[in-house]
Amino acid sequence: MVYLPNEITSKILSTLPLNRHSRLVYIVEEEDVHRYKKSTKINLVCPHCMGCYAKPYVSGHLCFFSDKSGIHVYNPGTRDCVKLPDLPLVECGHPDIVLGLGLDRSGNEFKVVQLLLIGDNLKSEAYMHTLGSNLWRKVDDVPNVRCFSASYALVNGSLHWLTYSYRILSLDLTCEKIWAHSAPLSSLYLMPDLLLADLGGCLSICGSSSIVDTSELWIMKDYNDKESWTRLIIRTGDVMFGM
């Protein structure tokens, strides 16, 4: 089964910057370049997974998770919802879990990834699920790293997470291979709030700190080329976060 969004939801939610703490967005239909004729409120709360937090959106879809309800992929525009099968038990009963949702353009399929950090020895495992199937596949050769759960980005057909060692973990959704590469060396390391994003098809990092009253925006202009990281914005006196 290919679970595709309707045209309006796909267009709006793929471009609308959502505050990661907000559960409300508005779809505004444009009449001409000067006026708008109608707005529709959408609540980003999955009715089948109450009390869960929403991950960043991908092509109009959101991924929800809770220990009790499991994982759901939800289209708030059409209100279609798919519950994913439970992952088989791992060695540690309560691993740290980081999720990712992406669209594999090669097969036009949505894929969900679980990153698990198991036990005190920081053993990492990753599992991938193709929406419409009934199983999880284990991803080989996963680096033993801890990733921030606050944000991830889908760029160039790969999911990306920022690690606690300030590297970027990438998983190619087509070949299902995973690796880690460098983030820009800068004062980002001093910033407690970091956000990965896709800006114009480029992998980007936004960092902010109320302590030093500064925000930075870095963009990797040439994908997977660490020399192409470019600092486009440094702002002081007006800290921005939540792009």
Automatic annotation (TrEMBL):
Origin, by domain of life? Eukaryota
Q: Where is the F-box associated beta-propeller type domain?
A: 37-233
| Database matches in NCBIfam families | F_box_assoc_1
Stated name of the protein: F-box associated beta-propeller type 3 domain-containing protein
Organism name:
Coptis chinensis
